[in-house]
Amino acid sequence: MFLFIDLAEDMVMQNPPWTRDELILALDLYIKHRGSPPGKNSAAVLQLSNQLNEMGRNVECRDEDYRNTSGVYMKMMNFRSLDPLYTSTGKKGLTGIGSGDKKVWDEYNGNVMELREAANVIIKNIGVDRSIGQKNLQKYIAEAREGKVLTKIHVQRERSKSLIESKKKYVMNTCGVLECEVCGFSFHKFYGERGKNFAEVHHIKPLSYLDAEASTKIEDLAIVCSNCHRMIHSQLPWLAIQELKDLIAST
Q1: Domain ranges across the chain
Q2: Residue 100, Cβ neighbours under 10 Å: how many?
Q3: 218, 200 in Cβ contact below 8 A?
Q4: What is the DSSP string of 225-236?
Q5: pTM value?
Q6: For residue range 156-203, what is the model confidence (pLDDT) as tens digits?
Q7: Taking every annotated instance into account, which residue ranges of this chain make up the domain HNH (predicted)?
Q8: In angstroms, rounded to a whole number, what is the distance separating the alpha carbons of residues 147 and 109?
Q9: How far is 133 from 58, CA to CA, in rounded Å?
């Protein structure tokens, strides 16, 4: 005797975990209305739902809309369960928070201006080209604090052949040699002709100032060797050029 089980009801597709970008935007909306969060049918929640779905299409390359207004509202209520201004009254809020929720809350709680700045620049860059999302980030690059949207724009600038060549040409014309601005390593000096004109380029402009539509200037870029470039991006927080120089000097 065979037993057939209908698993259709158990095969409901689950929405993907919330990304840092999404959590930052949801927390920003919650903090804006901390005393009285907007309802799931409000214009504010609908607007964020649309923005998150646009982000999913452009950055994550998803074709479906998966952040509906109910989900956005529930995420705000998750943050409410972490809010001492709410829980101190004996209320609990919506439980079932994820580790990402708490991490973002801990990072930005008490830093409203920093949160607002991060949210604004993410929203400004949501419409990045879908092709950016299709490029796999190199394994040595840790996702930036501000999330995937700005990480991918940053990486795109560093991989732009025209920008790389423009920076190299400028440095060669002014300094006569391509040396890492962190450790001073020169591929040409070490490897001879095989290393001539070889170097990597690092985008030094803070992520909060990145704009997918704005042009990158020569002074926004730095010549670095492969090792130093990987150390800059290997973990959070990403290091500034001087911070890595100081780290090397202290070892």
Answers
A1: 15-127, 149-250
A2: 14
A3: no
A4: -HHHHHHHHSSS
A5: 0.75
A6: 888 888 989 999 999 999 999 999 999 999 999 999 999 999 999 999
A7: 180-235
A8: 17
A9: 7
